[in-house]
């Protein structure tokens, strides 16, 4: 189905045509009519399926149909997201969709001076895209009024709950106009998301276009078994020999990300890093240079797993597998977007095999293994036997040590008993009386 089928305003159709959009994705086909009818929506769809357009386009159309002047310290649409990156991405997309309309969009998140944002909020904005924590700060400082909100959107709701934003969200919901339209988008329908939906939504339209925790068919997934200590070496070889030009690499920790970037740069692979300890300006610059092709590898922690929209990104590498199997789905969702093909590579050490098994169980498929000559990993069964043998030997040694210690203790105890016995049989000393 094409966008023209839903009678969008010419200004909106022109803008989305310039974005390269032609056919609607499944979630867009189901969500757009419901939102335009004024229904609340609870939608579950995997990342990269066009969720932003699914809620932004009908909101823009309703604003176009019912124009109002922007009021100071007010907004008509509030969109909450878990991360700064996702907030910026959504705002950029909405600006693209509304480029031929008179619509103001404002992003509110941490890492920026509160006073600077407060000045912008006082001028008002038609659409505010915000992270919950920073928005709540402005609410408590009375920098904005949410009593005139017509549309409230929670994007990546499951991620926000995972990050502990439930209390902030509940406080924000209390401040928002009660007669609003609510839209909740989530990659998964956890029990926490369902509870939030029950508190927030009124007779919602339920949309689920993909099975939970499924991965896109456009993403080819492979595993490279490798020793942990040789991962960097293998990654450099794969990027170099296979001539990968744009690679998003995920590590487990910030320290690992910083170290990997230094080593890749030493290998001649231009790299940059994105994680929570980096200033917002540094993160934006790294992402911009990666998109422009100035940087070949972008190394990131989980903070970038959701919200990064990099056009035509072909390769995602799990340098370390994520702690949670569900996060694997979101990481590899950075590639294979909008129907385009992509490749997800996981470098898996023996210590990570159990996590890999959890991931395969979650997504319902076994991932193809590729062994690179020279990087072979020893047999897992042999490793287990060696570990069991070492444990058995250690237990035997412990038993022998305990037995030896017990014998020594008993010998010492026997010696003390003899001394005590001799002491008790000793004749009493006669005391000579002095006359």
TrEMBL record:
InterPro entries: DEAD/DEAH_box_helicase_dom, DEAD/DEAH_RhlB, DEAD_box_RNA_helicase, Helicase_ATP-bd, Helicase_C-like, P-loop_NTPase, RNA-helicase_DEAD-box_CS, RNA_helicase_DEAD_Q_motif. The keyword Chloroplast does not apply. Residues 32-207 form the Helicase ATP-binding domain. Pfam families: DEAD, Helicase_C. One of its GO terms (biological process) is ribosome assembly. Keywords: ATP-binding, Cytoplasm, Helicase, Hydrolase, Nucleotide-binding. One of its GO terms (cellular component) is cytosol. Its EC number is 3.6.4.13. PROSITE patterns: DEAD_ATP_HELICASE, HELICASE_ATP_BIND_1, HELICASE_CTER, Q_MOTIF. Transmembrane segments: none annotated. It is an enzyme of class 3 (hydrolase). It catalyses: ATP + H2O = ADP + phosphate + H(+). Residues 1-29 form the DEAD-box RNA helicase Q domain. SUPFAM superfamilies: P-loop containing nucleoside triphosphate hydrolases. It comes from the Bacteria. A motif (Q motif) lies at residues 1-29. One of its GO terms (molecular function) is ATP binding. Residues 218-378 form the Helicase C-terminal domain. Residues 394-435 are annotated as: Disordered. Belongs to the DEAD box helicase family. This is DEAD-box ATP-dependent RNA helicase RhpA. The lineage of its organism: Bacteria, Pseudomonadati, Pseudomonadota, Gammaproteobacteria, Alteromonadales.
């Amino acid at each position: 189905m094409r966008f023209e089928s839903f009678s969008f305003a010419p200004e909106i159709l022109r803008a989305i045509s310039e974005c390269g959009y032609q056919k609607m994705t499944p979630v867009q086909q189901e969500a757009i009519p419901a939102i335009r009818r004024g229904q609340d929506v609870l939608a579950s769809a995997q990342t990269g399926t066009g969720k932003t357009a699914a809620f932004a386009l009908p909101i823009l159309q309703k604003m176009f149909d019912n124009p109002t002047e922007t009021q100071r310290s007010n907004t008509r649409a509030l969109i909450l997201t878990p991360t700064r990156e996702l907030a910026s991405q959504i705002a950029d997309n909405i600006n693209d969709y509304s480029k031929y309309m008179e619509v103001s969009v404002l992003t509110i998140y941490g890492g920026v001076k509160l006073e600077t944002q407060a000045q912008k909020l006082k001028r008002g904005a038609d659409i505010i895209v915000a992270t919950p924590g920073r928005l709540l700060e402005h609410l408590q400082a009375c920098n904005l009024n949410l009593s005139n909100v017509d549309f409230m959107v929670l994007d990546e709701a499951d991620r926000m709950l995972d990050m502990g934003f439930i209390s902030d969200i509940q406080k924000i919901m209390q401040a928002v106009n009660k007669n609003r339209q609510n839209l909740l988008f989530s990659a998964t329908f956890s029990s926490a998301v369902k509870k939030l939906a029950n508190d927030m939504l009124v007779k919602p339209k339920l949309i689920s276009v993909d099975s939970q925790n499924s991965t896109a068919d456009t993403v080819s997934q492979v595993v490279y078994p490798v020793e942990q200590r040789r991962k960097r070496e293998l990654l450099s070889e794969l990027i170099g020999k296979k001539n990968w030009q744009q690679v998003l690499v995920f590590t487990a920790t910030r320290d690992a990300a910083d170290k990997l970037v230094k080593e890749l740069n030493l290998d001649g692979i231009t790299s940059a890093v994105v994680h929570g300890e980096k200033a917002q300006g540094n993160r934006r610059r790294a992402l911009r240079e990666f998109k422009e092709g100035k940087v070949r590898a972008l190394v990131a922690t989980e903070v970038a797993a959701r919200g990064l929209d990099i056009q035509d990104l072909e390769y995602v590498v799990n340098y370390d597998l994520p702690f949670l199997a569900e996060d694997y789905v979101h990481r590899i969702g950075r590639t294979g977007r909008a129907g385009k093909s992509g490749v997800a590579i996981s470098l898996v050490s023996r210590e990570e095999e159990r996590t890999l098994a959890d991931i395969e169980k979650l997504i319902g498929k076994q991932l193809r293994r590729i062994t690179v000559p020279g990087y072979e990993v020893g047999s897992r069964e042999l490793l287990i036997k060696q570990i069991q043998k070492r444990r058995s030997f250690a237990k035997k040694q412990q038993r022998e040590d305990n037995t030896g210690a017990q014998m020594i203790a008993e010998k010492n105890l026997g010696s003390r008993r003899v001394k005590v016995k001799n002491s008790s049989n000793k004749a009493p000393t006669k005391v000579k009386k002095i006359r």
